[in-house]
Amino acid sequence: MDKKIVITIARQYGSGGKTIGKMLAERMQVPFYDKELMRMASDESGISEGLFADADEKVKNSLLMSIVKNVYSGELITPDSDDFTSSDNLFNYQAKIIRELAEQQSCVIIGRCADYVLKDYDNVLSVFVHAPHDFCVLQAGKKHSLNEKELEKLIAKTDRQRAGYYKYHTGREWTDARNYDLCLDSSKLGFERCVDEILAYINVRFGQDLG
Q: What's the chain's Rg over C-alpha atoms?
């Protein structure tokens, strides 16, 4: 691969965005990063990996999340500070790993506000995968043994948390198409075709045929 290309994928719950990301990484023969980023940030900072997971949940479940913002600026808090293990600094360490990956290799990154963290990088393609409600319920039902009403609650809660997490760290609306290079409806294209479309976009934008 001539140029290091990073694809970030944000996705509605049940849209298949993670599956599409994995398929894309396999087609491109590049690493795929999701929760591994927490382990890598833990290794980098010396902070327990469990604290990273706890911090994510704390932000996602905070009632203040939708009105309070701490927009990511790239600055790390030093170990001598009481805020070294704060939720904000733990996000900063994950963002540091994301930036280092973008500078070192081609890869696919799921979630973590990676599109915003890498917004100034010219080798990044940001994708948002979405789908109609019924499709998301159907897909979620393949992973969870829940009735339709329970699945609807799970989807609504997860998407609300993702939107709040994104707004807290970026100041932006998660579903705003202007935040992304490419928005794909997985219900209309299917997962394989979504991968095809991302690869086609890479070919047009970066001049590399990876498919």
A: 17
Copy the structure tokens of residue 47.
């902070």
**Which pLDDT tens digit goes with each residue over 68-80?**
566 777 777 667 7
* Contact in structure between 210 and 200 (CB atoms under 8 Å): no
- Beta-carbon-side half-sphere exposure of residue 81 (alpha carbons within 13 Å): 9
User: pLDDT under 50 in the chain at which residues?
Assistant: none
The order of strands in the sheet holding 6-11 is 32-33, 107-110, 6-11, 124-130, 182-185
Residue that is written with structure tokens 């010396």 in the block: 46
Domains along the chain?
Answer: 6-204 (3.40.50.300)
What does the alpha-carbon distance between residue 130 and residue 185 come to, in Å, rounded to a whole number? Answer: 5
Select from 77, 161, 72, 159 the least CA-distant residue to 119. 72
Count Cα neighbours of 2 within 13 Å in the Cβ-side half-sphere: 7
Q: Residue type at 118?
A: L
What pTM, to 2 d.p., does this model score? 0.87
Distances (CA, A) of 131 to 24, 28, 114: 18, 24, 21
Whether the Cβ atoms of residue 161 and residue 61 lie closer than 8 Å to each other: yes
| Gap between the Cα atoms of 17 and 186, Å rounded | 8
Q: Which amino acid is at 51?
A: L
